[in-house]
Amino acid sequence: MAQLNIRNLTVKFATATGSFTAVDGIDLHVDPGEVLAIVGESGSGKSVSMLAVMGLLPDTATVTADEMTYDGRDLLRMSRSQRRKLIGREITMIFQEPIASLNPSFTAGFQIEEVLRLNLGMSRKQARARALELFTAVGIPQPEEKLKSYPHQMSGGQSQRVMIAMAIASNPRLLIADEPTTALDVTIQKQILDLLMKLQEDYGMALILITHDMGVVAETADRVVVQYKGRKMEEADVLSLFESPKSAYTRALLSALPEHATGDRLPTVSEMFLREDAE
């Protein structure tokens, strides 16, 4: 069974005046069938870490690691062709803002059929039949009609379901979901999270869930990695993290949950973190 192992991952971006470190020595792993949440504020390096795994960072990025392996295969030493055979088949990713990820010039059906034809070598007829199965599996209403729809003709929740369908099309063993409920209303957020968890269980996939929402972490994760400014602050199983967080930053994140509000305004996570750090 495949496992992702990362040790001492560092990502630096070239700038006009030198370089900027976005990820600074991160260690993490995810086991087969496990749900790992990577949590932290915006800018903590969560998405960059996973884009490094996917090989999707721009040329301005320099990625180094003591280890970055999947199923014993070295992701950093793979050729581009070897990596293309792995990414999109065994490892897939759901990106933030589905509307921005879908091509507005093509129907949703065409886009998922292209994934099936390119990655799995299906004929047009096979790809159309499989696309219909996938749209049905992710709960898109009137799936035959929605295959013919363009992204702008679909709601945000429907577009996200299309992205999920594309991500599971090749029966991946590892699915990375980057803030999959961003910009969706609360009811749709729950539907999408419930769908992801059902698919994870049905397909037996490992799931890495990138989020800033500790409520989502509590409902979904087996284990949690907490990041802050590119560094790992803490790693624990979800129960231990909520019952006895070890780092000041994790405690600040938990204290920022709405149920802990005592006045007109919750202090920011950074305010609480700095306050506790000073104490």
From TrEMBL:
The keyword Transport applies. SUPFAM superfamilies: P-loop containing nucleoside triphosphate hydrolases (SSF52540). Residues 6-254 form the ABC transporter domain. It is a peripheral membrane protein. Pfam families: ABC_tran. GO terms for molecular function: ATP binding; ATP hydrolysis activity. GO terms for biological process: transmembrane transport. Keywords: ATP-binding, Cell membrane, Membrane, Nucleotide-binding, Transport. It comes from the Bacteria. Its main location: membrane. GO terms for cellular component: plasma membrane. The keyword Isomerase does not apply. It is found in: Cell inner membrane. Belongs to the ABC transporter superfamily. This is ABC transporter ATP-binding protein. It comes from Paracoccus onubensis. The lineage of its organism: Bacteria, Pseudomonadati, Pseudomonadota, Alphaproteobacteria, Rhodobacterales.
